[in-house]
Amino acid sequence: MAEVTVEKPAPELAEFDHRRLGQELGLFTFSDLVGSGLPLWLPKGATIRRILERFIVDTEIAWGYSHVYTPDIAKLDLYKTSGHYPYYKDSMYAPITIDEHEFMLRPMTCPHHFQLYADRPRSYRELPMRIAELAKLYRYEGSGELSGLVRVRSFCLADAHIICADKDQAALEVGKALDLIEHIATVFGLTLGKNYSYRLSLGDRKDDKKYYKNDAAWDEGESMLRDVLTKRGGAFVEAEGEAAFYGPKIDIQMVDARGKENTAFTVQYDFCMPDRFNLTYIASDGTEKRPVVVHRSSIGAIERVMAFLIEHYKGAFPLWLAPVQVKVLPIGEKHVAYAESVVAELMQSGIRAELDKSDESLGKKVRSAKVEKVPYFIVIGDQEFGSNTIGVEHRTEGKIGTLSITDFVTRLNQEIATKQ
């Protein structure tokens, strides 16, 4: 059997670098045998990821998006039609031949979503059409570019494409997309100007190899995005040569624990793809017209946002995101059975609880729970066992007091609901 080697965090990593905390808290790992840039999610990390995915899907549906599923693989012809293949082929996985056709792992979702739109004739009454997906994507990043969860070769993108009747409708949708981004950022405790910033990424009219040639459309798109940002009143910077090949974009920039700025996710204006895929709709006057598209992500790649959140919270996730919300600590062997019943009742109430049945002293169990950054821990001793109660402590607030399990669950549910 081949030897399996697992990536370990370098000793020089900063204390709150997500690569260090990810290993210390048992969230994710990497294996040389699986491949570089392909994260493996451990149970606790998978729990956080699952919560994030459910949160973003539910939030987007509430904001008017229709969630779909599309395949992780497609014919190479799809990406030649979109124009992605010549522009991005060096960062795509090599095609594979099946039944005399070339297929490839998808590096982006937009061509799939355009095929959903083109499934039947569309009316102006259906626009804007907001198509969203948690999409698994694959890109061959250079080995020197790989960095923990920030830059990987397999990732899940909270992606969406909004088909709009015209640039005026697109401008409204760009504003709504930024509203959604700022709403979600607030839930995470992130502040615009402090934890993230906006960058208007522009094209280069002289570079026909990197950018789709349509100077008038570039001028119009860049002006529209600049106007949206200006009217919002916040600060933003402009960066020439950072646009996508098919149009300008607003990048949401974040700085990691190393002080390096990364693009977390984007809102993009696309005047190119509707032409390439011959997307149309029937206008109110009965004529056939060409839509425009807004590409956007509400939180970006799950992997990358996980890296930012690990560092932002310094591993101490708020209750609603914590993989283990409550640790139950029986003082002695005679308290274990009651502690097990407490864990069972918490789990049945939807609380993620875990029992520490080790032979360690109570002091060591408490220290272990704090090192694991568990929000709450419960001490079970003679008093709690005899009165059918629990002794509750919080990782930062200290002792909460003696509560009934019902009252404790009510407290937790209120905190979870408010996402404090």
Q: Please, how many domains?
A: 2
Beta-strand segment tally: 20
Contiguous runs where pLDDT drops below 50 for at least 5 residues:
1-9
Helicity level, as a percent range? Answer: 25-40%
User: Reading side by side through the largest sheet, how are the strands ordered?
Assistant: 3-7-8-15-12-11-9-10
The average pLDDT score comes to 92
CATH class of the largest domain: Alpha Beta
Q: What is the CATH topology assignment of the largest domain?
A: BirA Bifunctional Protein, domain 2
Measure the end-to-end span: 48 Å
Biggest beta-sheet profile = 8 strands, mixed
Shape: elongated
Describe the oligomeric state of these chains in a short phrase: single chain
Please state the structural category: alpha+beta
Under the CATH scheme, the architecture of the largest domain is 2-Layer Sandwich
**Rg, nearest Å:** 25 Å
Query: Strand portion, in percent?
Result: 15-25%
CATH superfamily of the largest domain: Bira Bifunctional Protein, Domain 2
Structure write-up:
It is a single chain. Helix content is 35%, strand content 25%. The chain folds into two domains: 296 residues, BirA Bifunctional Protein, domain 2 (2-Layer Sandwich); 93 residues, Rossmann fold (3-Layer(aba) Sandwich). Strand 13 and strand 14 form a beta hairpin. The protein is elongated. The strands form five sheets. It has an eight-stranded mixed β-sheet. A five-stranded mixed β-sheet has the order 17-16-18-19-20, with helices on both faces. It has a three-stranded antiparallel β-sheet with strand order 4-6-5. The chain is α+β, with helices and mostly antiparallel strands and 420 residues long. The N terminus is likely disordered. Helix 1 packs across helix 9 and helix 6 crosses helix 7. The two termini are 48 Å apart. The protein contains 13 helices and 20 strands.
